[in-house]
């Protein structure tokens, strides 16, 4: 017998079947779902939204993920690697503008020069901000030793998206070789958690070959893994990638958008005290996409503070918004957007995952 949405939402735990039903909600049921997830957000997280100033400092990447616009095999990308002084200048901007935290993100490299450079940058960012800026890094798969080194240099959160927790689907969206192994991704996530990072992951929503059951399993995977933070967004196809050949099989962009909001809402109900980012990709589909996500469950936003000249070259997907705004414009625009979503910015606060704090006390 099919349960009503009211019955499902009263349960302490959701089964895969319950989640699929929530993800397929009718318009009326979606309203009930979003009301519930907003209430839970306000009760457990409050109305504060935390800034993570995003610095996408290089699009050099050794990998070839089949969905990504800056994959090594794409010859049509203008490759860039911002000088350390510029990165530090962006960090100083974040500090002077009362941001609590930064995200350092780039394509994946693990050569010694890169590893040492990141270590130095982390120490310098800590120093220029009197240890006040929190630092999240999102630099892909690395050895346990590298993760430990960066942790010791001052990074305390790490975002490594699993992209899909279904191994078969993961293999369909990555080349079939040892550099793109599902097991390696899983072991990296475990190492991050073991070292003591606030560990974040996420998935793409609306991938070719992906089913509602896959997405429900992704949410169950995040809960089972006891993840602290999540950044997930709609899959947006890029014409210079191998997955583009399946573009006619995709659900339309609006449906991907709605499905992403539902995923965020269900996850907020399942994991009440984690940090959930409102992904930039939502804004690529709906100009108010990020505000909508903040209303129904997200509490983190990542204003792009990468020097403007390079933003257009960090296109993991096409139609990415805000690639020609300066960091000042970006911050002002964010403030207005967050006020619109009835939120308040937690200036100068790290806004750490409450879930992580509780996990540490166990
Ligand atoms: S998704 Fe990340 S690791 Fe994969 S090709 Fe793109 S930048 Fe490189």
From TrEMBL:
InterPro entries: Aldolase_TIM, Elp3/MiaA/NifB-like_rSAM, FeFe-hyd_HydE_rSAM, HydE/PylB-like, rSAM, rSAM_sf. The keyword Iron-sulfur applies. PROSITE patterns: RADICAL_SAM. SUPFAM superfamilies: Radical SAM enzymes (SSF102114). (3R)-3-methyl-D-ornithine binds at residue 138. It holds the Pfam family Radical_SAM. S-adenosyl-L-methionine binds at residues 163, 185. Its cofactor is [4Fe-4S] cluster. Gene3D superfamilies: Aldolase class I (3.20.20.70). Keywords: 4Fe-4S, Iron, Iron-sulfur, Metal-binding, S-adenosyl-L-methionine. Binds 1 [4Fe-4S] cluster. The cluster is coordinated with 3 cysteines and an exchangeable S-adenosyl-L-methionine. One of its GO terms (molecular function) is transferase activity. Residues 47-277 form the Radical SAM core domain. [4Fe-4S] cluster binds at residues 61, 65, 68. NCBIfam families: rSAM_HydE. PANTHER family: 3-METHYLORNITHINE SYNTHASE (PTHR43726), BIOTIN SYNTHASE (PTHR43726:SF1). This is [FeFe] hydrogenase H-cluster radical SAM maturase HydE. It comes from Ancylomarina longa. The gene is hydE.
């Amino acid at each position: 017998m099919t349960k009503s949405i009211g019955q499902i939402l009263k349960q302490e735990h959701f089964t895969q079947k319950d989640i699929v039903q929530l993800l397929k909600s009718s318009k009326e049921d979606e309203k009930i779902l979003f009301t519930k997830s907003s209430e839970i957000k306000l009760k457990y997280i409050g109305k504060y939204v935390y800034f993570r100033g995003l610095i996408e400092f290089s699009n050099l990447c050794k990998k070839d993920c089949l969905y990504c616009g800056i994959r090594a095999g794409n010859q049509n990308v203008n490759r860039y690697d911002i000088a350390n002084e510029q990165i530090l200048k962006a960090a100083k901007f974040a500090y002077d503008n009362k941001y609590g935290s930064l995200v350092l993100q780039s394509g994946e490299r693990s050569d010694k020069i890169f590893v040492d450079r990141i270590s130095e940058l982390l120490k310098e960012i800590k120093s220029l901000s009197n240890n006040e800026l929190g630092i999240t890094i999102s630099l892909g798969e690395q050895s346990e030793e590298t993760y430990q080194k960066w942790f010791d240099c001052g990074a305390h959160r790490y975002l490594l998206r699993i992209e899909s927790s279904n191994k078969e689907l993961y293999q369909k969206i990555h080349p079939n070789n040892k550099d793109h192994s599902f097991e390696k991704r899983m072991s990296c996530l475990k190492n991050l958690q073991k070292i003591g990072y606030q560990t974040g992951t996420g998935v793409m929503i609306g991938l070719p070959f992906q089913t509602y059951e896959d997405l429900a399993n992704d949410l169950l995977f995040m809960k089972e893994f006891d993840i602290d933070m999540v950044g997930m967004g709609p899959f947006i196809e890029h014409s210079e990638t191998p997955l583009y050949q399946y573009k006619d099989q995709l659900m339309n962009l609006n449906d991907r958008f709605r499905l992403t909001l539902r995923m965020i809402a269900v996850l907020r109900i399942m994991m009440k005290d984690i940090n959930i980012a409102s992904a930039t990709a939502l804004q690529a589909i709906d100009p108010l996409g990020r505000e909508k996500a903040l209303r129904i469950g997200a509490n983190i936003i990542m204003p792009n503070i990468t020097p403007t000249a390079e933003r257009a070259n960090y296109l993991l997907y096409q139609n990415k918004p805000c690639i020609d705004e300066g960091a000042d414009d970006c911050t002002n625009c964010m403030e207005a957007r967050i006020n619109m979503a009835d939120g308040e910015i937690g200036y100068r606060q790290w806004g750490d995952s409450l879930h992580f704090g509780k996990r540490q006390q166990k």
